[in-house]
Write a structure and sequence with these properties.
It is a single chain. The chain has 140 residues and is α+β, with helices and mostly antiparallel strands. Helix content is 34%, strand content 18%. The protein has 3 helices and 6 strands; from the N terminus they run ββββαββαα. A 4-stranded antiparallel beta sheet has the order 3-4-6-5. The chain has a two-stranded antiparallel ribbon with strand order 1-2. Strand 5 and strand 6 form a beta hairpin. The chain starts with a strand and ends in a 6-residue tail after the last helix.
């Protein structure tokens, strides 16, 4: 079962490492017997499916902390190992999808038009007149 990140990127299972341990979360007495905590490790630097540009994009992101060139995700939210595995895979896919989104287009600066400048000045004058009309005029 490969991990589908988007329509262009699919990570094979052999590039994802799994670690299981006992959870300290929900599960009652069952927690002491089963390894329901899941830790997923995806080595970005040694991945064969990612292009060099994608690896660079992942490495410069602040959202994901890379440990020795790896993305590590630990999940112990659910009671069963299977549910935690599914949740870890979906989190990894969403993180990669978010990071590898194309950067937004840069805004091209424009100068304000003559009419927009005129409207702005007119609205400021109107506002000033309104405030002036509210003032009480006391003669001393």
């Amino acid at each position: 079962m490969n991990l589908t990140v988007n329509s262009k990127l699919e990570i094979p299972v052999n590039e994802i490492q799994w670690r299981f341990s006992r959870s300290s979360r929900a599960g009652g007495q069952n927690v002491n017997k089963t390894d329901s905590r899941v830790e997923i490790v995806f080595n970005v630097s040694e991945s064969k499916t990612l292009t060099p540009y994608q690896k660079y994009r992942i490495s410069i992101q602040d959202e994901v902390k890379l440990t020795n060139g790896c993305i590590c995700i630990a999940v112990q939210d659910k009671r069963t190992q299977y549910q935690n595995r599914q949740l870890a895979l979906s989190r990894l896919a969403s993180i990669l999808r978010e990071i590898l989104k194309p950067p937004p287009k840069k805004r091209r600066e424009t100068t304000p038009t003559r009419s927009s400048k005129r409207k702005r000045v007119e609205s400021k004058k109107k506002r000033g007149e309104l405030k002036k009309s509210r003032q009480s005029k006391i003669d001393y």
